[in-house]
Amino acid sequence: MPALTIFKNFTTRPFAGDDLQIVCVIIGAWRFIQLICLIPLVINMVLRRLKGRDLNVNGYPEWCPQYNLEGGFVLDEETTFDRRTFSAIFIIISAFYTLVDYCWLAAVWSIASSVGTPTQPRGRDKHLRRLIIFRIFVGNIIPIFLVAYSILFVANFRKTNSGCGEGVTPMWNMEDRPFFKLFCASGVLYFIELAIFPTILWNKIWRYISRNRFTKKHHYSAEAKGERLTRCLGCLFRCLNCFCAKKKWGGDLQNRGEVKDFAVSLMEFMNNESSVDLVMSDMYIGLKLLRRKQAEQQLEAVRELQRCRRESEGEYEDKMSQSPSSIRSIRSTLKKTKKQRSILTLQTNDGGYSLVEKKFFSSSNEEDVNTLVQLRHYVPYAQYAYFFNLVCSEYFGVNDDAKRFIREAPNFFTLDDRFSFGVADPSLSHAFLMYIHLDIGLAATPYGILLDNDKKSVVITIRGTKSLEEVVTDLQYNSESLERVGELCGFEGRGHESHRGVITRCKWIYNDVKRQKVLKRLYSVDSPYRDWNLVVVGHSLVSNLPILLV
Questions:
Q1: Residue 534 structural domain
Q2: What is the number of alpha carbons within 13 Å of residue 165 lying toward its C-beta?
Q3: Residue 240 lies in a domain
Q4: Is the pLDDT of residue 70 over 50?
């Protein structure tokens, strides 16, 4: 379904005619924000008019000293009364424009949703084109008037010293009043609305100027767009850095292509230099067809499983005629299999999809229950990784600016209560702190090494995503080969890949553990913990770090 063409080079892309309900929702939400600013102004205008407080006495409003004379009003033949209509005109026209625009949105919604189909418009685009042209050329006259009117009102209000004249101090500053701020906010919202059209026009002009045989390939390739988006996102993160206490979060962001993976992938997905006129309805239909295809493949996989099961049942019936011992072994195998629960998933491969059976935990399986008990025991370690700074500074006397904490040599092998997490949480009285790294960076990751006296294990707990640096690392999702890592760490990594940001953090933790030599001392010959198990836990995106580290 092609996008709706308004003019020769002006379309509603990425929305087709039957997708304009989304545009109506966005514009309607914008109008609702304007309505929030407008309703208090309308109520205030009506109440002031009913109380007569919108009258000017001799041209002075009520907040001027000339308005309230000592002993009351002095009424004579020269006293004049007039109403302040400047702001009232703005409010009335704004209310009228909001009502008309909601009617226009209702007309567009009705035509887009009820006339024609995605493949057979039946005159829908013709009616929508007329409504949009009317909105562009006629509907924008009122916002232009309101923006100019509000600018003139504020300029005149300040020029005349709030209407009190020069050298006179008003009894209260009107610019600090909420209604004046709502009035200015309404004018700013109308200005932002009108700024969309100059932005579109400038974009068209710039694209026309820069589109030539020398610059077309450079400016409009997905990689070039990705580089520009990378710089924009980098500037955004640097700005967020100012709001996140630079000393704690965001200090390691340098805007040097840290989010290039995300930006290039996004531009490759949204590259609009192709000849395919892709709109939202096409994406919706494509996703529905993809879901249907997946359902068909799942059905085929289930049928294949049923066929294999029937064959196995036939084989079982043949074996029932064998000796009683073989029958008992088959029955025990089937009984054990029934306790194990699993789900069928489709896993991609080079040729398409393959059926994969994935087992999950069951309460009727003793081994699964034991595993769940172990998981329940180690979950608090992953939770407390987010509060290392608070726990260390409040209970262990670690300075807030410290980057790491390590037990001193004389008390290194002792289970001292001074280093027990029980002071922070009584349920963790069996956990004893050995080492914690608190620094944050694009590679540096907060993690800790603790001793678990209940399970006789050494626990490495890694914190998940919490800072801006970790968000940037999450966006580095391009895959990286594990071949080189496997050569250094002693496993076969050829043909295996992982998240690039996760690999970066995993390398850093691995090197920091070797550099601090905490594990080396805990598993040395003279250590009382040399026979304890090693457990690695993590949360959020770093939950796969334990697999790589182990």
A1: 371-549
A2: 10
A3: no
A4: no
Q: Both ends of the chain: CA-CA distance in Å? A: 51
Report the range of poorest mean pLDDT among 240-244, 265-269, 273-277, 506-510: 273-277
146, 93 Cβ separation under 8 angstroms: yes
In this predicted structure, the answer to whether residue 539 has a pLDDT above a threshold of 70 is yes
Distances (CA, A) of 237 to 223, 241, 247, 314: 21, 6, 15, 63
- 485 and 507 Cβ atoms separated by less than 8 Å: yes
Residue 273: inside a domain:
no
Distance from C-alpha of 274 to C-alpha of 460, rounded to nearest angstrom: 49
Asked if 462 and 385 count as a contact pair (C-beta separation under 8 A), the reply is yes
* Tokens read off for 145: 């008037």
The strand ranges marked E within 62-202 are 81-83
In one-letter notation, the amino acid at residue 412 is F
Instruction: Say if CB 542 and CB 445 are below 8 A apart.
Output: yes
The two beta strands, 431-437 and 404-406, are antiparallel
With H, G, I as helix, E, B as strand and everything else as coil, classify residue 498. Answer: strand
Indicate whether 325 and 416 sit together in one domain. Answer: no
Number of Cβ within 10 Å of residue 467's Cβ equals 19
- Provide the token pair at 455: 């399970």
Token representation of residue 114? 């009820």
Helix (H, G, I), strand (E, B) or coil at 483: helix
> Does 388 lie in the same domain as 323?
no
433 burial via Cβ count (<10 Å: 0-12, 13-18, 19+) = buried
